[in-house]
């Protein structure tokens, strides 16, 4: 059946090509996201991958599986993006009436974007397991700090489980080079050590989430602080400002609440983590979407809060604004 579809695809049959590639479309998108750290960049890379596959199907010789061949195209497309100078630039602070505290540091991965869990549900059970185990924001961010070739090797070997000889073929290099790059990538991967997060949708997770929503929507800074770890981390890409430590994160949140900004939160999930569309209340009753928050949990506390811009709301099926009554 596959041979027939390949033959028809080579003859220009769109439906045959779609039938060949559709089973891999979502996992390729996740792969591009993990390599690039950006949902939109992953969308662009996936489209380029499928176009290249369509044009190059005549050169597919069947020595590797179709899946491996598609991963080769996608990986090299992402490497081209990573090596270009056109990544999304940092953005200046633009919240009127709020003066942020001095940041702990300036973040480098300002192009980071979240990935909707609803799309992960489209993966096959096997692919869903291997993908969601390494899709957290912390892991994706850490990957972005690696050199491109090391990043590709680490994902292909440690996340996706391709053999060293397959990776060497994908990257047009030697097995020895792959092994060397993998060793350096593992050594360079900077990940925070912490207690495991509670299981998704478990009573433990639900309790933390409910307490966070209550504290944030009522601007209860004391209740919010009680939920944070001592080394809590806050980031707001594409703003480069990053804050680490309960004291400075508390001052940041107190500044937001002190300026009179009040929010309603609409729950969703991103990168296997609790997330919320944030809607700013106004005097008219209309609540305007200001961004998307993603929480990183550890034990029974919040270890990180990451805020993304409101253009991400659409990818999560969330509206740009809410009316006076609760619409969720």
From TrEMBL:
Residues of the SnoaL-like domain = 209-291
Q: What Pfam families does the annotation carry?
A: Sigma70_r2 (PF04542), Sigma70_r4_2 (PF08281), SnoaL_2 (PF12680)
Q: Where is the RNA polymerase sigma-70 region domain?
A: 22-88
Looking at the keywords, is Transit peptide present? no
- Please list the GO terms describing molecular function: DNA binding; sigma factor activity
- RNA polymerase sigma factor 70 region 4 type domain location is 138-187
Keywords (alphabetical) are: Sigma factor, Transcription, Transcription regulation
Does Zinc show up as a keyword for this record?
no
Question: What InterPro entries does the record point to?
Answer: NTF2-like_dom_sf, RNA_pol_sigma-70-like, RNA_pol_sigma-70_dom, RNA_pol_sigma-G_actinobac, RNA_pol_sigma70_r2, RNA_pol_sigma70_r4_t2, RNA_pol_sigma_r2, RNA_pol_sigma_r3/r4-like
Q: Name one GO biological process term.
A: DNA-templated transcription initiation
Highest taxon in the source lineage:
Bacteria
Q: Which CDD domains match?
A: Sigma70_r4
**Matches recorded under Gene3D superfamilies:** 1.10.1740.10, 3.10.450.50, Winged helix-like DNA-binding domain superfamily/Winged helix DNA-binding domain
Q: How does it assemble?
A: Interacts transiently with the RNA polymerase catalytic core formed by RpoA, RpoB, RpoC and RpoZ (2 alpha, 1 beta, 1 beta' and 1 omega subunit) to form the RNA polymerase holoenzyme that can initiate transcription.
PANTHER family named in the record = ECF RNA POLYMERASE SIGMA FACTOR SIGG (PTHR43133:SF65), RNA POLYMERASE ECF-TYPE SIGMA FACTO (PTHR43133)
Family to which the UniProt record says this protein belongs: Belongs to the sigma-70 factor family. ECF subfamily.
Q: Which NCBIfam families match?
A: PRK08241.1, sigma70-ECF, SigX5
This chain belongs to which protein, by name?
A: RNA polymerase sigma-70 factor (ECF subfamily)
């Amino acid at each position: 059946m596959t041979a027939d579809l390949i033959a028809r695809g080579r003859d220009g049959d769109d439906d045959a090509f779609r039938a060949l590639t559709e089973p891999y479309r979502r996992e390729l998108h996740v792969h591009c996201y993990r390599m690039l750290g950006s949902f939109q960049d992953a969308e662009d890379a996936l489209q380029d991958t499928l176009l290249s596959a369509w044009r190059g199907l005549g050169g597919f010789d069947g020595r590797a599986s179709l899946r491996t061949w598609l991963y080769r195209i996608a990986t090299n497309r992402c490497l081209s993006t990573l090596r270009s100078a056109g990544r999304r630039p940092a953005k200046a602070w633009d919240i009127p009436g709020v003066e942020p505290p001095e940041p702990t540091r300036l973040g480098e991965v300002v192009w980071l974007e979240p990935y909707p869990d609803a799309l992960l549900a489209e993966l096959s059970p096997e692919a869903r397991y291997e993908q969601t185990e390494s899709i957290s924001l912390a892991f994706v961010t850490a990957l972005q700090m690696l050199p491109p070739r090391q990043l590709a090797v680490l994902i292909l070997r440690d996340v996706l489980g391709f053999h060293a000889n397959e990776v060497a073929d994908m990257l047009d290099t030697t097995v020895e080079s792959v092994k060397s790059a993998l060793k350096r990538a593992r050594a360079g991967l900077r990940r925070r050590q912490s207690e495991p997060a509670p299981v998704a949708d478990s009573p433990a997770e639900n309790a933390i989430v409910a307490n966070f929503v209550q504290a944030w929507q009522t601007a209860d800074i004391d209740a919010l602080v009680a939920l944070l770890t001592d080394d809590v981390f806050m980031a707001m890409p594409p703003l480069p400002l990053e804050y680490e430590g309960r004291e400075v994160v508390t001052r940041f949140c107190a500044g937001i609440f002190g300026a009179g900004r009040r929010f309603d939160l609409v729950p969703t999930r991103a990168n296997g983590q609790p997330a919320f569309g944030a809607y700013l209340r106004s005097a008219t009753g209309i609540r305007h979407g200001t961004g998307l928050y993603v929480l990183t949990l550890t034990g029974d506390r919040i270890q990180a809060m990451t805020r993304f811009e409101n253009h991400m709301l659409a990818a999560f099926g969330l509206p740009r604004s809410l009316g006076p009554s609760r619409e969720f």
